[in-house]
Design a protein that fits this description.
The chain has about 260 residues and is α/β, with parallel strands linked by helices. It is built from 11 helices and 9 strands. Helix content is about 45%, strand content about 15%. The two termini are about 20 Å apart.
């Protein structure tokens, strides 16, 4: 796995990988290089069995402030084809994160603005600092949160997001918690400790089972009851017959801790 990126910093702590957006002088805002690095990093992390949990956070005071102003100046003169290419890069980066088979955590240390809100939808668990602020600010620029909306609308109800997608107004961490965009709010000084604690708990579970849980959460809500039950029965039957579940059940019955591969 590549650990050298111009816009990211990667740190290993046991089975947890910390991925830092590392453009603090630009408030960790998106440009073409950051999006390229994110897509590559998320793809490679997803394929690395030695990484059990991913934590994403930002260096400096901001989590991710959306689009870089220099990048936006270029976009003003883009053709439709060029705009579609850049929009696809945003979609690809978040899709690589969302589709990862292992648990992911966003540790929101500061402002999450515009496209930076996409991490809240693409990660499995979101912990935010009390100092964090949020905004789906695109409409104030004549734009919409198009590429991140499929992820956000899988986390929070459309009715909860409607006001903020239409207004672009800023809101605090307590509001983000109420809307369902955030799972837990903690004091700023305890943010990474909380994220690492959750990561350590996640690493105690079976990785294959976690991958199936993520698949279940994605597929079952869109299925009819008959389809969901057929899928669920098949999924658990396959797991029970597999080596991972056999190991886990034997360890449980023998009252021994199970060390997952």
């Amino acid at each position: 796995m590549n650990t050298s990126y111009s816009t990211l910093e990667l740190e290993r702590e046991g089975k947890t990988l910390l991925l830092w957006l590392a453009r603090p002088e630009k408030r960790n805002s998106f440009d073409a290089q950051l999006l390229k690095d994110l897509a590559q990093a998320f793809t490679e992390i997803g394929q690395d069995p030695s990484v059990r949990v991913l934590v994403v956070s930002g260096r400096g005071q901001s989590f991710c402030a959306g689009a870089d102003l220099s990048w936006m100046r270029q976009v003003v003169d883009y053709t439709f084809a060029e705009n579609r290419r850049d929009s696809q890069a945003i979609a690809d980066a978040f899709q690589a994160l969302y589709s990862m088979k292992k648990p992911t955590i966003a540790a929101v240390n500061g402002a999450a603005i515009g496209g930076g809100m996409g991490f809240l939808g693409a990660c499995d668990i979101v912990v935010a600092s009390q100092a964090a602020v949020f905004s789906l600010s695109e409409v104030r620029l004549g734009l919409v949160p198009a590429c991140i909306s499929p992820f956000l609308l899988r986390r929070a109800p459309a009715g909860a997001l409607r006001r903020y997608m239409l207004s672009g107004e800023r809101f605090d961490a307590a509001t983000a918690l109420r809307l369902g965009l955030v799972d837990e709010v903690v004091p700023a000084e305890g943010l990474m400790a909380k994220a690492k604690s959750i990561a350590a708990s996640l690493a105690e579970a079976a990785p294959g089972a976690q991958a199936v849980v993520k698949e279940l959460l994605e597929r079952v809500p869109g299925q009819s009851l008959d389809q969901a039950l057929d899928y669920a029965v098949d999924a658990i039957a396959k797991l029970r017959a597999g080596a991972e579940a056999q190991k886990g059940m034997r360890s449980f019955l023998e009252k021994k801790p199970c060390a997952w591969d």
